[in-house]
Write a structure and sequence with these properties.
The chain is of the alpha/beta class. The protein is built from four helices and five strands. The chain is globular, with a radius of gyration of 13 Å. InterPro entries: DUF5615.
């Protein structure tokens, strides 16, 4: 299955518009869209949604997300992956990284993992 991204509600919608402009076939949703969890949904519920729907979560939550992922995995669940962005990178740099990942990754490469962007650090 192709990579799909679910953007955390705290990320700028510019990420989606730039990702889709660069790759029109890429599926990118933002928490609060009609077909995804509403704004204010708890992180554990978002991880379950990502698992069920095959989306990689893109977030800026470096504090609590590792604990949420550990709890998620400990309960026998899985997730396609979590990418945590670097607040010091521009939107353009992050978009470049996310597009590169889509083009260069194999299926399930990021399953059950948190990766901190940029990957090339």
């Amino acid at each position: 299955m192709a990579i799909q991204y679910l953007l955390d509600e705290h990320l700028s919608p510019t990420y989606r518009s730039q990702l889709v402009r660069r790759n029109p076939e890429l599926v990118v949703r933002i928490i609060g869209d009609l077909d995804v969890p509403p704004k204010g949904t708890s992180d554990p519920e978002i991880l379950i949604w990502c698992e069920t729907n095959g989306f990689i979560l893109v977030t800026n939550n470096r504090k609590s997300m590792p604990r949420h992922l550990a709890d998620h995995l400990a309960s026998g669940r899985h997730i396609p992956g979590i990418f945590t962005i670097d607040a010091n990178q521009s939107i353009g740099q992050t978009v470049e990284e996310l597009i590169f990942i889509v083009e260069a990754s194999f299926e399930d490469e990021y399953q059950d993992r948190i990766e901190y962007l940029p990957l090339s650090q």
